[in-house]
Amino acid sequence: MIACLGRIVQDTDADSIPDDDVSTLSESLDLQGTIESGGITGVAGKDFGGLYSVKPLALIKPSGTEDIARVVNAASRTSHLTVAARGNGHSINGQAMADGGFVIDMRSTEENHFKPLTIDGSHYIDVSGGALWEDVLKRCVSMFRLAPRSWTDYLSLTVGGTLSNAGVSGQAFRFGPQTSNVTELEVVTGKGEITVCSETQNSELFFGALGGLGQLGIITRARVKLQRAPDMVRWIRVVYTEFEEFARDAEFLVTQEESESFDYVEGFVFSNSDDPINGWPSVPLDPDHEFNPAYIPQTAGSVLYCLEVALHYRNSDRPSTVDTAVSRLLERLGSIQRLKFQLNVSYVEFLLRVKQVEEHAKANGNWDSPHPWLNIFISKSSIVDFDRTVFRKMLKDGVGGPMLIYPLLRSKWDSRTSVVLPEGEIFYIVALLRFVPKGPTVEKLVAQNHEIIKWCNKEGLDFKLYLPHYQSKEDWKRHFGNQWTRFVERKTNFDPMAILAPGQKIFKRTHIIKP
Ligand code: FAD
């Protein structure tokens, strides 16, 4: 459909769009997809966080890469318009928004690419940047019995959205984050150029876009590494009273050879209470499992630790073989013997486990409530201090949702990408996934997040925010540390007018008049 910009102009604040911009845009935008403006852009001005809302100029539903390039090119001919790719809008702090600018709904391109490839005996899938990981999973498994190797916990996220951050879950200790599991991207840069890039072709753009917070380009296609999909998963949770023991076992598991460890390692902190959300009932995997608090030693403190692991297996494996393999691995752990929960689920069911949480939360209205989440990467050298003050004191009653904590290995991350990490080989991801009702509590919890960060800074902890959010350039400079210069150079090369991803609030839109 040919876009009709005249309508958009009428629907928006006339002062904000100079006439010449509008006429220039009208001439240049000749989309195959559609443009929506006014009230129907509503979804583009909100995100999962529910903390911010803005009014975009228009929501564009492109039919493909050419449309996206046209929009970026058109914006570049104005002095002020910006462009935000919106994956599934699961950011927390307005990162996928464009106040007064164009929001590109990447989901409208989700079907554009889905092509399996075998290169030198290895399997890959080319998928759209706007595809949901859950669809990639289901299609790859049902059609080829293959699957990506590295995931996020929740899969209603887009390929481009997670690759712009990192994409972390319990497989990352072995395969690295999702950004370590792609070999080629097609990107629309901030100059409106469509560029294919990889480790050997336009490598600055390839590595820059991975973890690049959408600053250098819009990912329209990604080539994702695949492995043979297992049929089944033994999903296990065990409990610890002491952080040091939990951390020792988790670190042990993530540093073993593949044959000597589980295929998935995560963990979480929960309060030592019967609170249905934050306490003991959050641990069992099945309604039939009972968490018996009598097994918790008297010496336990205000919080406990759950190590969550999983082992892949095939339908052809005998149950006794799986039992033996699991027992052999569990034997080495120092968890409380009698607080152990196990479940056999299909591989797809396991990877879609948070979907059930979503359905449940949607049914009771919690899914749409605000989510003042905080995600941090913390160096092993600082994690004990963090636990002692933040988990055991500040958050001892929980956060109204999961408090994840598990170790990752820096050597599995490519330092050429734009992701920034703390120092040292072992670092932890900490995720405070708060589900809270609307109201004044939200501000209090945002303030508590700030307090945690302030405390980390004051104590000199070695940490970096994951899914970062800052308001000032100084803070961003500090975040990137010694990678700031490289990031700025990449921005200057690929998005010199700072058209892309304005919601990240890193760079100010500028205008360079082309000769
Ligand atoms: P959006 O929120 O739409 O966009 C995020 C950023 O990327 C924006 O700046 C946007 O402009 C940019 N962007 C979007 N698409 C593209 C593209 N194609 N090209 C370039 N830039 C683009 N993260 C993890 O790592 N592990 C987890 O286990 C995990 N679990 C989560 C569970 C839930 C319930 C939620 C809400 C989030 C979770 N996240 C997790 C965080 C998630 O990875 C990020 O919020 C991610 O950005 C969301 O993807 P999205 O597709 O919704 O992106």
Short synopsis of the structure:
The protein is of the alpha+beta class and 515 residues long. The protein contains 15 helices and 18 strands. Helices cover 29% and strands 22% of the residues.
Strand order of the largest sheet: 14-11-13-12-16-17-15-18
List the domain count as a whole number. 3
CATH homologous superfamily grouping of the largest domain = FAD-linked oxidases, C-terminal domain
Distance between the termini: 32 Å
Beta percentage is: 15-25%
Estimated radius of gyration: 23 Å
CATH topology of the largest domain: Vanillyl-alcohol Oxidase, Chain A, domain 3
| Shape field | globular
CATH architecture of the largest domain: 3-Layer(aba) Sandwich
Which structural class is indicated by helix and strand composition? alpha+beta
